[in-house]
Amino acid sequence: MMQIEVNNKKIQAEPGEMILTALKRAGIHVPTLCYLEKLPPAGRCRICVVEVEGRKDLVTACSTPVQENMKIKTHSPRVLNTRKKILELLLSNHPDDCLYCVRNGQCDLRQLADEMYIRTRDLPRNVKKGEIDTSSLSIVREPSKCILCGRCVRVCAEIQTVNAIEIMQRGSLAYVGIEDDKGMGESWCINCGQCVVVCPTGALAEKSHVEMVKDALGDPKKYVVVQHAPSISVTLAEEFGFPVGTDVDCLMVAAFRAMGFDRVFDTSFSADLTIMEEGSELVHRLLHGGKLPMMTSCSPGWVKFVEQFYPELTENVSTCKSPQQMMGAIIKSFFSERENIKPEDIFSVSIMPCTAKKFEANRPEMGRNGVSDVDAVLTTRELAELIRLYGIDFKSLKPEEADDPFGQRTTAGKIFGASGGVMEAALRSGYFLVTGKELEDLSIEPVRGLEGIREAKIKVNDLELHVAVTSGLGNARKLMDQVRAGRKDLHFIEIMTCPGGCIAGGGQPRNADFEKFKARAQSLYTIDKNEEIRVSHKNPSIIRLYDEFLGKPLGEKSHKLLHTHYKKRELYN
Amino acid sequence: MSTTPSPHVVGDKEYKLSQQLKDKITDLSAQYPEKNSVIIPALHLIQDEFGWVPPAAMRQMAQLLNIASNTVFGVASFYTMFNNKPVGRYHIQICRNIACSLNGSKELLEHIMKKLGIQIGEVSNDGKFSVSTVECLGACGSAPVMMVNDVYYENLTEKKVDQIIKSLE
Ligand code: SF4
Ligand code: SF4
Ligand code: SF4
Ligand code: FES
Asked: Is any atom of ligand 2 closer than 6 Å to the C-beta of A187?
């Protein structure tokens, strides 16, 4: 540790770290627009400038390393003036139609304009134009709102290694685009939405399904059913001012009822179902010489990633549909029959941490007879919008429970929301399926964690099962390159598209840092620790569903409803 | 020094990289630790072949190197030295910065456009000429200046320009 002086006060700094990091630790706020927590600094936007004694020019806090006894001023007149000028330049071509903007109320740029006390338009205006790109099923781009901070491009290239978007041209002509000026829907984009979470403006947003859901709720002929993914109950809280990681499961259920949803189901239930099918599939592959390592299939961004970048490995991906689609399929088959409601009269909504789920729900395989299994997908952020639209005072709601027959879950299904959760749940049930006994310790610590690639070995009878877990497609790429190069020791791999898993998904509340991700994940593991039923095969509703309808895992009905196939996708065309 | 014509390949629907060109690019890539570093030299090779950098050729290059085609497009559109649209066999680039402007480059540009019957960014019908403006060519001492393909022409006047264009016919 060493000392630096900021605004005449001494603070501690680590040798080699950037000024910004030291300032953050000391609770001193400096605005940033291009900075990204886990990536090397870009120094693009210049809004983070500070004054350093002895230096002629202002320096960027995000990309200037600290030095012993450095004297810094973060809010001197010169700094404030310069920052304001930079911002005014950014605003001079900005459409500022905040009233009609997707980010109205939650916009970093707008907030910064307020913070910097911009009250007049002093520069000549030359408003940016650009067509709105609605070609993607998951994401909408509004280029006129883009301030060229470059965050989206860097997340896409450096974290996800997808490179779907790029800065084209230069200087005043520069824009975020796609080769040949294609639409996002025809690009390499795997729909993860990581760019959407980091965009400081309304230039990137999920394709909204809010209106669709509102219309369905207002339509007396529609029977509106909702499912909510495992991670939603521990992230929605942030949208309503609860401490990060608060589990608002039962309040959320109450909110659904207040808005008029006819049935409330829990995707963690179908996560349990996924485990029954996927665990059985793994055992089947192990015993009958199927393709190994088997890889999870619940994250649709990852699925498209394999289809595009590792087409020769598509057979390694589990044929199980994701929990969202398994739930969708049984709602429009078993549930529809049982309740005597035609599938086309059921409007099936899912609340997901994920923008890629919108793409997934639209895949042609995900329905029967022209009726899709999931009709609308809302992100956590959109759910908060819907709740506000209906004027619901979230904090004053009384807790309620989800509905039968798909409202009951185990904690194994719940931990799907964090990276490593699917693996842990699968190992718990897979062990039971093979040995007929329960694991002695159900908590499998080595597969937990939000970063890097984690591996573990579990003894199952005579077999030493070798598993690997990772999240973020940059990490997935490393692992896939090993498999492609002939690595043979792995049996089962869990991949989540977003770094950290669903709790850090592209549809989650914005402005989350790594500390928040940890708190969200911790909340899931606390639930897992405190509840009775922690293995999917003991979920009474699952047992009943197999008895009354499905028969057995991997059986004929399962095959028809719960499993799917993939396609190889061409790049470079 | 005189200007040699560059190829002016348009309408070649596929813009296929020849095996020879592919080999050259592959050989180049062995010289760099990072595959992305090959993009610029490879783009030069492609431009030498077609006179510009056709999208289809850039995609084949990206596929060959197993890199993102978007990155290649980003680089190609960043540098004005890469022609993102077809140019004539003689591509005239005239400086539009201060020194040249003060010495009449704007009028020269008008003159050239009128003489050749093309606007900035256009190619004459016979595929022979195209014209664009560029930022400083670094020869302010002999302004106004233009480049035709790789060759500099300095201290220009309308008469000189006429002669140059004639010599290229
Ligand atoms: S992006 Fe932000 S500043 Fe721009 S119009 Fe939307 S709300 Fe306003
Ligand atoms: S959604 Fe994901 S893959 Fe698509 S552009 Fe954004 S970061 Fe890239
Ligand atoms: S789209 Fe958003 S994140 Fe991307 S460069 Fe523009 S403002 Fe930044
Ligand atoms: S945040 Fe430092 S330059 Fe953008």
From this structure: no
Q: Strand pairing partners for A223?
A: A346
ipTM, two decimals: 0.90
Domain boundaries, chain A: 2-75, 123-206, 211-562
For A168, the closest chain B residue by CA position comes to: B74
Residue A319: strand, helix, or coil: coil
Q: Tokens in use for B88?
A: 């004539």
| The pair of three-digit structure tokens given for residue A54, joined into one six-digit string | 């002895």
d(CA A117, CA A108): 14
What are the helix (H) ranges across A118-166? Answer: 151-154
Tell me the CATH number of domain A123-206, given options 3.40.720.10, 3.90.1640.10, 3.30.70.20, 3.90.470.20. 3.30.70.20
The predicted pLDDT at position A244 comes to 97
Residues of B in contact with A156 (CB under 8 A): none
Q: How far is the CA of A180 from the centre of ligand 3 (A)?
A: 19
Per CB-CB distance under 8 Å, the chain A contacts of B74 are 166-168
Cα–Cα distance for residue pair A157/A150, rounded to 1 Å? 11
Average pLDDT over residues A226-252: 97
Instruction: Write the CA distances from B44 to A420, A573, B77, B146, integer angstroms.
Output: 47, 22, 13, 21
What confidence tens digit (pLDDT) does each residue in A523-536 have?
Answer: 999 999 999 999 99
Distance CA A268, CA A351 (A): 12
Q: What is the pLDDT of residues A283-329, one digit of tens each?
A: 999 999 999 999 999 999 999 999 999 999 999 999 999 999 999 99
- The ligand minimizing its distance to the Cα of A505 is 2
Contacts of B77 in chain A (CB under 8 A): 168-170
Indicate if the pLDDT at residue B13 is higher than 70: no
The answer to whether residue B136 scores a pLDDT higher than 70 is yes
- Tell me, in angstroms, the distance from the centre of ligand 4 to residue A49's CA: 8
- Average model confidence (pLDDT) for chain A? 96
- The CATH T-level fold of domain A211-562 is Rossmann fold (3.40.50)
Ligand 4 center from residue A139 Cα (angstroms): 26
Interior/surface letters A128-149, b for 16+ CB within 10 angstroms, e for the rest: bebeebebbbbbbbbbbbbbbb
Does domain A2-75 fall under CATH 3.10.20.740? My reply is yes
Q: Is the CB of A72 under 6 A from ligand 4?
A: no
Whether B55 has its CB under 8 Å from any CB of chain A: the answer is: yes
In A, which residues are within 8 Å of B71 by CB distance? Answer: 157, 163, 166
Instruction: Report how far ligand 4's centroid is from the alpha carbon of A133 (Å).
Output: 27
The pLDDT of residue A309: 97
Judged by CB atoms closer than 8 Å, whether chains meet at A179 and B78 is answered as no
Average pLDDT of the segment spanning A480-506: 97
Catalytically annotated residues of A: 278, 281, 298, 318, 357, 360, 365, 502
Q: Is the CB of A167 under 6 A from ligand 3?
A: no
Q: How far is B165 from chain A (nearest CA, A)?
A: 31
Q: Chain centroid to CA A524: how far?
A: 15
Domains of chain B, CATH where assigned:
12-78 (1.10.10), 90-168 (3.40.30.10)
Give the pLDDT confidence of A121-156 residue by residue, as tens digits.
999 999 999 999 999 999 999 999 999 999 999 999
